[in-house]
Amino acid sequence: MVHRIPNPFRIIILGSGISGLSAAETVIKYSQVPCKVTLVECEPHVGGWLQSKVYEDGSVFEHGPRSARSIGDTALQALNIMSDIGIGSKIIGIPRNKITSTRYIYANGKMNELPSSISSMLFRQDPFSRSIISIIAKELFVEKNVTDEDESIYSFFCRRFNKEIADYLATSLCRGIFGGDANVLSMKSCFRQVFEFEKKYGSVTRGMFFSKSGNAESLSDLALKAKREKWTSWTVQNGMQALPKYWADSLRLNGVQILLDTKCEKLSFSNEKVFCTTNSCVLEADAVISSLPVCSLKSLLTEANSTLSALLGSINFATMAVVNLEYVNEKVPFNGFGFLVPSNQPLNILGMTFDSVVLPHPTQHNSAILTVMSGGAWFEEIFGNPNSCDENMIIESSVKNVRDILGFRSMPRRVLCKIQKNCIPQYYIGHDERVEQIKNFLKASDLPLLITGTSWGGVGINDAIINSKNDTLRWLASNHMY
Fold first, then answer.
1. Which residues pair with 352 in a beta bridge?
2. Domain covering 9-46+238-315+429-479 in this structure, CATH number
3. Is the pLDDT of residue 3 over 60?
4. For residue range 249-260, what is the model confidence (pLDDT) as tens digits?
5. pTM of the model
6. What are phi and psi of 49, to 5 degrees?
7. Is the N-terminal amide bond of 127 cis, ω within 30° of 0?
8. What are the distances in angstroms from CA 312 to CA 29, 105, 152, 295, 451?
9. CATH of region 60-69+82-97+316-426
10. Which of 119, 124, 223, 458 could make a disulfide contact with 76, Cβ separation 3.0–4.6 Å?
């Protein structure tokens, strides 16, 4: 908590990913005290994990998220913010249709389409031994867990549904969203709404049918358009990295200073001040908001904050290998978003997205653009140390999987490999308790520090935007600035 409010109140924000930009936007828009906001970014560009490579012929490679969901309260609130900052015209909606709603899992040596409609759930489909509707019907009568005790995602799906659903569906979801292992990830922290369905309704199925939207916020024209046109997700002209670029331009117009190529090397606190030692200068401020992964923030703290460092170190992160490939005169033989690989399968990839099938970016040369994801919780087991792994081996593995699974015979026209180190937090069982310890320590220590970002609260784009906004609003209120 800040005890004295200077005018202007100087705030340093660490990280220009989507969480840091959202925090800056919230301070500028809602603070009732004049603020001088300085955003510090170690890279030569804003965006964090939103990274796009756009070629002159229009092809787009996404090294991070390629779209954001547009369904649900959080998604609509995020679209409201996109409208507020004036980039609604840059947003490209991806409407729900047969292609965009089709997902596959690759199991037992073949591609298996997941049911995407009630009618498709009526009949048995591989790799399941029973129809999905019969499994769902049985779940209605499974006795609910009356305790609030956390459990693994795998255990939850086994208990509520059956082992097949856990093996094929739950593990695939965890690998696709978190790059993580369903046996150790927390159901409560990763899929909180589904976890609460059991508590409130006694059944996940009943919860999905009877839960109501809690969004009382009025919707912008952009959000209303998304609902009217039934978008499943959205992307941005010229790739997702264009989003933080547009947002940063808007923040600069509102007086936010953005320092690129400026690496924070040490963070210290003294006499209710913050001192951020960078590779070029020492910045002084009245408070700091960190949107960095907590594993990165941990390395910046001094010995005086060793207890906080230890608490932050209790949260683990996964490293992903992302390989973008473009093929000429090859056609993806499946009309869908892509596929995931369950963890009980012998393949060394997590999944693949069919970017040129789903994303509305123009392509030439009759191109097929794909993204292969590997590593995650299994990175070191498969590829070794992320700092010294062989990228050529990762590329060769990706090309081989494209050949074996999709039947492509030519070599890719373009290839890019990115090792995204510590990019996805792993919400292990007991994650909520670890986060509560961190928050309680910060409150008791009275440090002028807010920690936000994806280290808790959700890893998606919409989660990052809205959680950062809400964290910042609460922090402003606690300091009598909102």
1. 339, 372
2. 3.50.50.60
3. no
4. 999 999 999 999
5. 0.94
6. -85, -5
7. yes
8. 29, 35, 21, 7, 10
9. 3.90.660.20
10. 223
